[in-house]
Amino acid sequence: MVASRSEGGRPRTGAGDGLDNPGADSAGVGIAPSCESPVAEATPRLEASGILRYDGAGWTGVRTLPYKTSAEDFAGMTRRILASPEAAAFEVRYFEVDPGGHSSLERHAHIHVVIGYRGRGRVRLGDAVHEVGFGDVVYVAPGDAHQFLNPYGDPFGFLCIVDRDRDRPEPIGG
User: Fold this and answer.
1) In 3D, which of 114, 131, 115, 113 has the Cα closest to residue 123?
2) 8, 36, 89, 117: most buried, per Cβ within 10 A?
3) Which domains are delineated in the chain?
4) Which of 49, 55, 43, 54 is nearest to 15 (CA)?
5) Percentage of residues in the chain with pLDDT exceeding 90?
6) What percent of the chain has pLDDT over 70?
7) How far apart are the first and last CA of the chain?
């Protein structure tokens, strides 16, 4: 493995490790061409080993997307798809909830594993509400009603690992 520096001075691996590919961003991760759907365009191509660099505000080459495009009951949320390799059965996403924001209250047949990454927030699991902070792991079982909330003054961010192929959420309530 050859170490080199990107234009921003960050260490980066070099030729022979899958990072020196055409269409790669400064971190060496291939980005989908703009002719694809907005979600595909915002999803890094991870067919070869590589690194997505976090710069304190987001990941290089990963666009922020709306939480959902439907009119379900949610407020102040965004998402980023960090990894959805074609050969994998999983997807890793990052969600951020603005102060006062919340996800939709929903249930579905697939499992969620959520890891607190930034700030603090709350998760509603059934009728119980729990505090969530950095490093806390939330397991959402199939069929359980759940919602993520941020009643605090700073953003609440979390990583979410789900099945790559999954069912659609069923909204609960109004």
Assistant:
1) 131
2) 117
3) 1-63 (no CATH), 65-174 (2.60.120.10)
4) 49
5) 51
6) 71
7) 55
